[in-house]
Amino acid sequence: MNDDVRNIVLGVVAAGISGALGWLTRTYLWKRRLRRKQAFFGLPTHSECLLVVNRDAGKEGAVHRFDVFALLELASLIKDCGAHARIVQHDATQQGFGVRTEFCLGGPYSNRRMAAHLSALLPGVTMNVDTEPVPDRGAFTIGGERYLVEGGVTEYVILARVTAGQGQRPVFLFCGQRAITNQAATRYLARNHEKLARKHGDGTFCLLLKVVNSLAYGPDVVEVVADVTRAALAPAPTAPAAAP
Known about the structure:
The chain has 244 residues and is of the alpha/beta class. The protein is 39% helix and 22% strand. It has 6 helices and 10 strands. The chain has helices spanning 3-41, 65-80, 112-121, 179-200, 214-217, 229-233; strands at residues 48-53, 84-89, 102-105, 125-127, 140-142, 145-147, 154-162, 171-176, 205-212, 222-227. The strands form 2 sheets. It has a 7-stranded mixed sheet, sandwiched between helices. The protein has a 3-stranded antiparallel sheet with strand order 4-5-6. Strand 1, helix 2 and strand 2 form a beta-alpha-beta unit. Helix 2 (65-80) runs parallel beside helix 4 (179-200). The longest helix is centred in the first third of the chain and has 39 residues, at 3-41. The radius of gyration is 23 Å and the shape is elongated. The chain starts with a helix and ends in an 11-residue tail after the last helix. It comes from Streptomyces crystallinus.
């Protein structure tokens, strides 16, 4: 074998080894990212999760189109994890939490299960669910601060990941003042889940997000107002007892 042939053979072997190492490295990094994503969402391969949907106001059994878009955002995340989703109506979900991951969508006025979750898991978060057109209709109260809705201009939504105990699957809450804010929260989660996982790990967190000018920008322009986890987990203040 002369020097030219030997150099060609060595070059081919080196290229093959380099390609194999590159493929193994990419595969390892992809699998590590997938494991982290599955751990954050509590969605191991072939697991099942629940998508709990609310109802469109005044339409029995109907789901608002923005909530449908939110479900599509979540379905993509679930598929990436290799898991399966089951969609159930809010008033047909009579089971506990922690056994399987749950994504609960909609405010407590249209989602009975969301109302139960806020009361049991985030007692420091309250929402005005008056049906009358009062000034603070739909307003959040968190830690003594009140957040009013200005339709299409400034709207708020709670994005929370709550776990009931060690080893239990998480519950994700998307509790918005309007349907478009639910979609904004799911889109924010889809875009920022890696950053949230690095910051919060597999623990509980509760973020208050502001959707800016949804009339012009839809669900795309979202700002983090505050991490309200501590206030949300604190017991709700009790009203003073009436004097005898």
